[in-house]
């Protein structure tokens, strides 16, 4: 563990740096992490010799073919990720564990949250939350994940991962739709419902569907994978439900130069959404959408598009599920990305995971609780240990005002990238994410080479889709880190 | 937290009681937990007034209709579960959190495991294990969950719950089957595979199936729910795959009196399994089975049945997936329940969760690693914090020799139940689980009344299927607890 975490002095030091500088400079005094290195260190190729040896040991029992870097977490700090060979990289994307580390490695405030009696009990007396919640479960929820619930959504169903957050949300949508078809919550299941469902046939197991969009990513279990449309390799050989896929707008950049064309493209997509809801052969119960399609290539759409989607789903009595697994918890400069849309009525369901470290879905309409107990149920229904970590993350976000901070750092970083794009034509194409915090990406003609070269100069950046470079820094990413990133990117494109 | 957990003296005291008495008596000296109460305390109806108030607070934000008891975990110890109203019950089933607490509430050895640097790092620096495992992940696996891997299975894929352990196992089965159909791991996907899977159609998203049994329970997400056949309420209104269901043997008890009929019943079921493998319209890639069908009513089958199932699956090139989510980790008197079968070749895949506190699947055949990376992948791929807890559980099981202990306590308890069954005819029907540790159950003519009355006399027991009472005590359940349980059951049937 980094030394700051052992010393009380270190904790105090971190607690004192509440404000950050708004001027772009390498300002050590304003650093959130006083023990962060001044910049990356690259000592060996990655993986280096020590890592290679450890990877081959691990590979004997655990598939390592997707391994990106073997990490020494105890030597990682703040925005910097370390390995066994003494390499220390600025962690700007997958980095942060596929966008799932919000407030830095070895954050002292999170460490303090691991030392409580509540945490020890959650770890060793793991409850079946549906049957035997602890007496303080309500207070853990209310002081934690419900305090940041999206506007209008005051209920939660907790789960363990983004995939099962989405799948339990889909189950809620199916039960709600079936209940309305049946004539309300008090109408009993028919004997045909009951006998047919035991052999997986309609009407008990109906051919209902969830609509998703081209290039969407919603998870990799069977229900969520049926809505995932990102890459064939995610889906091949796995049976899938016959559910509809609507086109997601393909916008042209820069947005202000293509306003009319983009508006027409969004209109076309919305018309197709409505047509599919009306005509698809397996009744559509919900539409699921990411505020920014992440795995699928960092595809954005306008607030107007999402407002239109809300109207269409309302008009057709279909639920709108917003998948904030990757976009939630501050990275777009709002706590929830869908706050950018100014909807007149909230989404029906919002799912979360990743940076929350806990997972689940928020909802507001009480009718989305199924009409009987044990319909939406499983053994653990989440993990209170992870709910306690989410609460500590929320407190850290509030203490350091990290959502506003991320909006400002994002604007600063975007401006820097615009300067680079102008200086190096053709290298930073379709730069996108303006006004969306640090949720920034662009298309690169030699994307894979750029990612590889990144590691050599000390930055850990990631790709998505076919040609996009995407940035997913933590919320504690600061302007001096942005400067290092911009300098490194310039070094890469010059070389 | 119970006081023993704060004091080092308490930890030492617990560590000293390594052996347990083999004579049936209320032997305080041999108790695993020195601070356990001598017996249950029932002060109020459950829920009592304080619990009622807390439940209504919780219900505002979290569905409480399946709530069984609001628990004060910090006042719970060993085999005893406490609530806010001063009630302390002997926890013999759901109890133990739907069979998921192995070594007692507030076990000091588990508490010690929460205090390590590794645990703190796992909690605050949660890795994406597929991309960025920690440098000591191999050693955490090898010193923990791989040390107890079923014979012949030396590889693991980690996940977060029983449902996703089963579903990722199913995905492995589908990819393995498709690879053989395609002609081996080096044959590339066709362009038709790639284009069809993006719209969820065959051949890229094939109509393959997983076979399960009547009354099976394998989870509640879309793939696992398609193999679950326990109760309609688990399945209604949720779309399901068209997968086959084979009959699970319905044995008659006592087994020695119905040997010939039971053998014929098992033969009939096996024949139907083989017929379905050969004839079902959606190709069967794997058969999934529980060693004891738990949620479905505690249905047992003989070792010969499972040996036959292994032969049939081998002969037809279909995988055998053994779902040990509820049966694993010692409760049947073997670490893995399928060890009772003495198979000549191991199952292809064994899934685990619950008492392991971590989840995933074991396998041995290297070809069950998909032919390319990122095919079996997700963001977190499990939780190292939970893997560390499983390691501490394994150490505690070994220290106290709890598997052998559970076999012996089970025999003692079963003999006591046989005496009760003889004394109270018609009250303990189809008593089952002989020689299966504490994995014991029976059918009761007034099952729901028995469960309710249990709480009034201080024992927390559970039901399954239509009329079964099932026992799922922890591994630290001792003979003096069995005596209390037997006395309480006698009190209930007499009243």
Automatic annotation (TrEMBL), chains A, B:
Keyword line: Aminotransferase, Pyridoxal phosphate, Transferase
InterPro entries, sorted: 4NH2But_aminotransferase_euk, Aminotrans_3, Aminotrans_3_PPA_site, PyrdxlP-dep_Trfase, PyrdxlP-dep_Trfase_major, PyrdxlP-dep_Trfase_small
Single GO biological process annotation from the record: gamma-aminobutyric acid catabolic process
Catalytic activity, reaction form: 4-aminobutanoate + 2-oxoglutarate = succinate semialdehyde + L-glutamate
Origin superkingdom: Eukaryota
Record flagged with keyword Transferase: yes
Any GO MF annotation of the entry: 4-aminobutyrate:2-oxoglutarate transaminase activity
A GO cellular component annotation in the UniProt record: mitochondrion
Family designation: Belongs to the class-III pyridoxal-phosphate-dependent aminotransferase family.
Lineage, top ranks: Eukaryota, Fungi, Dikarya, Ascomycota, Pezizomycotina
UniProt keyword Transferase, yes or no: yes
A Pfam family that the UniProt record links to this protein: Aminotran_3
Full protein name: 4-aminobutyrate aminotransferase
